[in-house]
Specification:
single chain, 7 strands, alpha+beta, 159 residues
C-alpha cells in the first residue's frame, strides 16, 4: 500500500506582495474565483499601480493560489476590501483568513479607522469568515449595489 499524499499546510504557501510579473497570473486567478464578474486585466493593472502595498498573494512557488486586494482612502480613514479570492482546490484550508489577517494587520499598522467590504448575500461561507474577523453586516441587503440583479451585503469593521 502506498503512502497517502501529504496535506498541504499554510506554511507551504508564501504570503507576499504582488509584483508586476504576477499580473497575468492574478488575472487568471480572479477569473477562476469570480467567473461571472472578474476584474478586467486593465483594472487589476491600475489597482496594482495605485495600491501596490495592499495587494497580497499566496504563492506555492509555481502559481498563485489566493489574493486579497485593499483600497485605502488617502487620509487612511477608511479602506475597502475590493477582492478576496482563493483557487477552488485550496478553499476551506484557512487561506482566506490568512490573507485577511495580514491585510487587517497592515491596515491597523497605518492607522486605518474602518474597513468595509461587500459580499453576495448568499455566500454564507464568506459571511461567516468576515463575521469571525469582527465584521458586522448592515441591516439589509443593498439591492442592485453593482447594477441590476447584483445585490450585496455591506459589512464593516472598526479597527
Amino acid at each position: 500500500m502506498g503512502a497517502l499524499p501529504a496535506r498541504r499546510t499554510a506554511r507551504q504557501l508564501r504570503l507576499r506582495g504582488v509584483t508586476e510579473a504576477d499580473l497575468d497570473a492574478l488575472a487568471l486567478l480572479d477569473r477562476e474565483t469570480f467567473p461571472e464578474e472578474p476584474y478586467p486585466y486593465f483594472v487589476l493593472r491600475q489597482m496594482y499601480d495605485v495600491y501596490p502595498d495592499h495587494l497580497l498573494v499566496l504563492d506555492d512557488g509555481t502559481e498563485l493560489k489566493g489574493y486579497v486586494l485593499v483600497g485605502t482612502a488617502p487620509d487612511k480613514s477608511r479602506s475597502w476590501i475590493l477582492g478576496l479570492g482563493i483557487t477552488r482546490d485550496e478553499r476551506g484550508q484557512g487561506y482566506g483568513r490568512r490573507l485577511m489577517d495580514e491585510a487587517l494587520r497592515r491596515l491597523r499598522g497605518i492607522g486605518v479607522a474602518e474597513v468595509l467590504l461587500t459580499v453576495v448575500p448568499t455566500n454564507t461561507a464568506a459571511i461567516l469568515l468576515y463575521e469571525t474577523l469582527g465584521f458586522t453586516a448592515e441591516q439589509t441587503t443593498r439591492q442592485d449595489y453593482f447594477g441590476p440583479g447584483a445585490d450585496r451585503l455591506v459589512m464593516r469593521l472598526r479597527l
